Amino acid sequence: MQLTYLGHACFLATIGGSRVLFDPFIRPNPLAKDVDVDALEADYILLSHGHGDHIADAEEIAKRTGAKILAIAEIAGYFGAKGLEVIGTNLGGRVALPFGTVHCVAAAHSSSFPDGSYAGVAMGFVIKTAEGQTFYFAGDTALTYDIKLIKERHTVDFALLPIGDNYTMGLTDALVAAEWVGTTEIIGMHYDTFPVIAIDHAAAQAEAKAAGKNLRLLAIGETVAL
């Protein structure tokens, strides 16, 4: 599979013939100003929760591409009412799709739409691809013992974890989360977008290395093969 970082917590995964977009927040993100939203293609859009910095571009991209939005029931209902194709889920649910299975897991975080209305609860995703890899997209979460359950149910090859602190867990807790899910491979997200979540890249990578973990901090627009 290939993974492209589009800033903040937004990634585009190409898995087999499917393009899977996570938490699109691109146009309002000045750090992602060079990303051409109009050129992005997606077959599925996975939304971890309802905050604006995770759903900002979902409606536009779904309307243009015909992508199906997978999200917790309340968010699916919100976008379904706009005439978009949706897949409603909830915590613990497992959905089979052409690129693999999506297991919806707990995330400890608030969730509301930009107008303040209720958007269900936050969640993360464990993706088991048809190509044989398994990865964890944590969404926005604190360090919580629920994360330990993932290792009991899955063999995780790599994890996409928030590391910016303040609104989510910071790197120190993310390193514990990686240990709990059983992986040494971390791709950082939810950092640098706002001053309050800016990190020292060199210090972060040194801390990760000291903990026996490989932390990747991708440049916006960078694509890696995994």
TrEMBL record:
Pfam families: Lactamase_B_3. SMART domains: Lactamase_B. Residues 7-190 form the Metallo-beta-lactamase domain. The keyword Protein transport does not apply. InterPro entries: Metallo-B-lactamas (IPR001279), RibonucZ/Hydroxyglut_hydro (IPR036866), UPF0173 (IPR022877), UPF0173_UPF0282_UlaG_hydrolase (IPR050114). Keywords: Hydrolase. GO terms for molecular function: hydrolase activity. Belongs to the UPF0173 family. This is UPF0173 metal-dependent hydrolase GO988_18305. It comes from Hymenobacter ginkgonis.
